[in-house]
Amino acid sequence: MAPKRQKQKSSKRGKTKITLPVSEEAEPVNMESMGHPEIYPLVLTNKTQEIFNCRIDEDVTDEQPYKLIKKEDIFADFENRAAVSDFYPVKKIIQEYPGDELLLVYDKDFKYGLNFYLIGTEEGKENYLNPPEVPEEQEEYKEHIPEDIYIYKPPICKPWVSLGSEKEIEEELVKESTKEITYMISRKRSEFGAPVKFSDQNASSVKDAYIECTAYPDKNFTLKQLERDVGMQVVPKIKDTSTQTRWTYPKNATTQYYPREFSEEEKEALGQSKTLTEFLNNVSISVEIALQQNEIMNTFINDWKSLAEEEGTFGDKTDTHLKEYQSFTDLHNLTEKMITCVSWHPIIYGLIAVSVAVRLSFEERVHFSGKLLLQPSLILFWSFSDPIHPQLMLESPDDIFCFQFCPSDPNIIAGGCINGQIVMWDITAHADRIENIKADGSRSKNVTLKPMFLLEPESNKEAMYIRHCAVSSIENGHRKVITDIHWLPDTFEINRLGSVFENRSGISCQLVTCSADCTICFWDIRPQKALTPQPPTEKKKEESIEVPFDVPSTFLHLNLSWKPLSKVRLSKGETTLDHCPTKLSLSEDSLLYKAQDKMLAQSKATKAGEMNPYQNLEGGLGNHLKPIDDFCTKFFVGTEEGEVIYTDWKMERDPETGRFMTKKPVSLYTVHDGGVHTVQRSPFYKDIILTVGGWNVAIWKEGIMTGPLLQSSCAPKRYTSGHWSLTRPGVFYIGREDGYIDIWDLLEKTHEPAQSQNICITMITYIKPWTFSAKQQFIAIADYYGTLHILEIPWTLSRPSTSEVSSISHYFEREVKHLEYVEQRKKIREEEKKEMELEMEKKKVKTYQKSKEQLEAELKMDYESYLELEKDILIHLGLIKVKETMSYMEMI
Amino acid sequence: MAEVEETLKRIQSHKGVIGTMVVNAEGIPIRTTLDNSTTVQYAGLLHQLTVKAKSTVRDIDPQNDLTFLRIRSKKHEIMVAPDKEYLLIVIQNPCE
């Protein structure tokens, strides 16, 4: 009761004075809805709480949240406070409560809505106090810890509740409708374990051995396919075909044809036919017009193009000087020597031969003759690859003044001595040595370390002295120095009378020499047929001459018995003085050109004969050959006195004596002031000759007898040597005595040299140019001190311009015309002179008719004028004073 | 006969003429101043060329006809004078 009251009180305070439960009779609200029908929530006020000693937090705490309240107390409370008591709403419960004590629980959390609740049943109280305390507490605990630990509860088996699915299953089940019959089959017991016999039998042979169920088409089950799913694709139509060709193997087939030709008779027949004649008559007119058109003018000439010079220059165009290439000096021999003649080897590149002579005058030679005998006279072979040592040294009995390689065989050399002998060498045995010079370059290195004076000729193993193999006869040959020697070309030969014959042997076998004894001799190197039987004594004498064994026996037949074939004496007519020839020039000079074609010819000859023709010279020439009539046998000779003679070598019969005499010279000109030392034909024009001598140069044309085409004025220095250029027709080189070389270019200047260049300090004795290739041209210049200079000719001097040949020939033609003009002028002048003289005479005749008196008067006047003149002069001279003159006049 | 020779000799003696030949309509040489192989070669080639040239001229204008053919080359000039039955070929070197 008390708690009821307290509850009522509390409810008063708690709620906003909601009126007291009006109806006591109202049913107390219990918590049946919450599952606890015995719980009656109550609100207990503080007063009620004091009364029943269930003050919150004093009597009723969390630990003991219940209080047992006696029933009597509550009834007392009902009487005290009647409706005000908090227990009033649950009065009925309390009255009906069987027990004495009621349990009042403090609901701290307002779980049931109010702060206290009353347990209305004894059971509830019991449950609450004892176990219900646990489950309530457990419920509380459950509420607090459901998330922490999951307690697994196994499922509790429950009875199956049918929901109707079993019927479906029953429908689906397949149950055996028929009863199964069981059979047991066994064999006879006796057969148990017995061996079994198996046999085959065909199933169809035994009846009822098998039962078959054949298949038959049942119409019920045939379906007509009315629809079908088909896929389609469009593809291009492809067709594969193959073929095979028939392979034919390659076959060689040739055709040969020859042109149709007429036979001779047909040709003749046709030639005589009229149609041909008519045709030619008609056609020849137009053809000749066309031909003449071409002759008149070349219409297709491109003037612009032909104006230009060739552009392909190799070197510098402005470079016009000769460039020093090499120089050779013989350092072994100590005597002073000069070079007398120079000749390039016709075939081998870089080989040049030089003849040296002692630099002494005739008197000194005689004086030192003993000493001179000990020293050998040499021809030295120099090569570009070795400037110190000569490659070969050809020994000769005396100083050589001129020599030449044989044009048919360069291993044969002929030289002219100072004593008038001709010396022949044959170096065939040493030919390979000089051909392979370039291979040895090393030996010069060994030698240069030693000073020159220690070297002796013997220590130089390479150069050898090669002895001559033949000399001419001393008595029959020349008496004085041989000044010029030439080989006759291999196209013709001459006999003793000077008639020209065809040379059948294909080799040069004749020589021509001229010497200071005023003779020109022709020599033949073939053994002479003995015209008269020689006395046996002489033969013995000849045989006793021993020849050293290392000398080739090519010319043994000539040795010391060689006579000239014919002699031509250049006599000056009646006087005993004869011309002294110094140089001569035949119509063909073969060694000016590089003899390549000739070598081919010679090689052919050697192949045919299979031996060197010079080894096997046949004697003489057959007399059955006819002499060539229209051969030009004339030649030019230059003499010591400076004359140029054009003469003939053919002998003629002297009508008086009946002997063969030399002809008189055709023409003779004294042009040069000193000895002529160069008479040379131009390599381009067969009839143009250059002569150099004294202080000037002259160019001649063969056939023009009036004079030289060109004669230069006197040079400041004497000209000592000269040579045409080999490649340019208008160029020639002249050497002077002061070591200068004058280069004349007829296209540039004709009155003086185009260029002048210093080569050495002394007189130039010989000039010889040579062409090795289109780009390389050398000129060998020999000087008085024995040095040979090799210079390279620059491009401008070696390369002719495009029309140079024709320009020069035009120039010469103009000169010829000029000469003719001069001749004509001379004649005209002669006539004029005559006329003038006649007039003069006429005048003289006229004047003679004057009177004597007139003459006297004239004389007097002349005398007086003379006296005045005398006076004037004396006054000028100061010899007579003026006063004196006056007095003199007064006296008169 | 003599006339023929004379005419040919006259033509041959012109300046620069290297060779002269007379060829028939089929290209077979009748008279020549050159050697056989050269003659045959010239005759065959020039005959074909003449026929071609003639047909060219006639194609362009049927009333036209070839009268003379001159071939100028670097080294010399070949002159061909055609006729119905014969061909005269002259080779000349016009420049010096």
TrEMBL record, chain A:
This is Dynein axonemal intermediate chain 3. InterPro entries: Dynein_IC (IPR050687), WD40/YVTN_repeat-like_dom_sf (IPR015943), WD40_repeat_dom_sf (IPR036322), WD40_rpt (IPR001680). Residues 1-16 have a biased composition (Basic residues). One of its GO terms (biological process) is inner dynein arm assembly. GO terms for molecular function: dynein heavy chain binding; dynein light chain binding. SMART domains: WD40. Interacts with ACTR2; this interaction reduces binding of the Arp2/3 complex to the VCA domain of nucleation promoting factors. Part of the multisubunit axonemal dynein complex formed at least of two heavy chains and a number of intermediate and light chains. Found in a associated with the catalytic heavy chain DNAH2, the intermediate chain DNAI4, and the light chain DYNLT1. Keywords: Coiled coil, Cytoplasm, Repeat, WD repeat. Acts as a negative regulator of cell migration, invasion, and metastasis downstream of p53/TP53, through inhibition of Arp2/3 complex-mediated actin polymerization. Via its association with the multisubunit axonemal dynein complex, is potentially involved in the regulation of cilia function. May play a role in osteogenesis of dental tissue-derived mesenchymal stem cells. Its main location: cytoplasm. PANTHER family: DYNEIN AXONEMAL INTERMEDIATE CHAIN 3, DYNEIN INTERMEDIATE CHAIN. Residues 1-24 are annotated as: Disordered. It is found in: Cytoplasm. Gene3D superfamilies: YVTN repeat-like/Quinoprotein amine dehydrogenase. It comes from the Eukaryota. GO terms for cellular component: inner dynein arm. Residues 819-872 form a coiled coil.
UniProtKB/TrEMBL annotation, chain B:
Pfam families: Robl_LC7 (PF03259). Keywords: Cytoplasm, Cytoskeleton, Dynein, Microtubule, Motor protein, Transport. The keyword Transport applies. One of its GO terms (biological process) is microtubule-based movement. Residues 4-92 form the Roadblock/LAMTOR2 domain. GO terms for molecular function: dynein intermediate chain binding. The keyword Cytoplasm applies. InterPro entries: DYNLRB1/2, Roadblock/LAMTOR2_dom. GO terms for cellular component: cytoplasm; cytoplasmic dynein complex; microtubule. Acts as one of several non-catalytic accessory components of the cytoplasmic dynein 1 complex that are thought to be involved in linking dynein to cargos and to adapter proteins that regulate dynein function. Cytoplasmic dynein 1 acts as a motor for the intracellular retrograde motility of vesicles and organelles along microtubules. Homodimer. The cytoplasmic dynein 1 complex consists of two catalytic heavy chains (HCs) and a number of non-catalytic subunits presented by intermediate chains (ICs), light intermediate chains (LICs) and light chains (LCs); the composition seems to vary in respect to the IC, LIC and LC composition. The heavy chain homodimer serves as a scaffold for the probable homodimeric assembly of the respective non-catalytic subunits. The ICs and LICs bind directly to the HC dimer and the LCs assemble on the IC dimer. Belongs to the GAMAD family. This is Dynein light chain roadblock. It comes from Rousettus aegyptiacus (Egyptian fruit bat).
